[in-house]
């Protein structure tokens, strides 16, 4: 390996060419938006009251739904980021094959 500090690592070049960091930001915003929307629908009972027949250990239902909303936001955000990255890779592959 060379000691040239001006060249970027190959993995960083790949991530930049796939617009990975932009895709992660878009995914996080999309995931957070979906999770907040669904949490507000549940917490504010926008679709009507929920019949609570369950008992929730340690915390009330609002805390458990907030934790579930966090997991949903992270999962959906990752899914969106992966989909956008795959789409960018396909666009790049088509552009290279045309040349």
SSE order and pairing:
Layout: H1 10-17, H2 20-43, H3 61-98
Helix pairs in contact: 2-3
Radius of gyration: 21 Å
State the end-to-end distance.
31 Å
Mean pLDDT: 86
Helix percentage range: over 70%
Output the structural class. Answer: mainly alpha
Characterize the biggest β-sheet: none
Low-pLDDT segments: none
Percentage of residues in DSSP E strands? under 5%
Number of E-state strands = 0
Q: Give the topology string: H per helix, E per strand.
A: HHH
Continuous helix count? 3
Shape: elongated
Please provide a written account of the structure.
- 71% of the residues lie in helices and 0% in strands.
- The chain has helices at 10-17, 20-43, 61-98.
- The longest helix has 38 residues, at 61-98.
- It is elongated.
- 8% of the residues are buried.
Characteristics:
single chain, 99 residues, mainly alpha, 3 helices, 71% helix
Give a brief outline of the structure.
This protein has 99 residues and is mainly alpha-helical. The protein is built from three helices and no strands. Helix 2 runs antiparallel to helix 3.
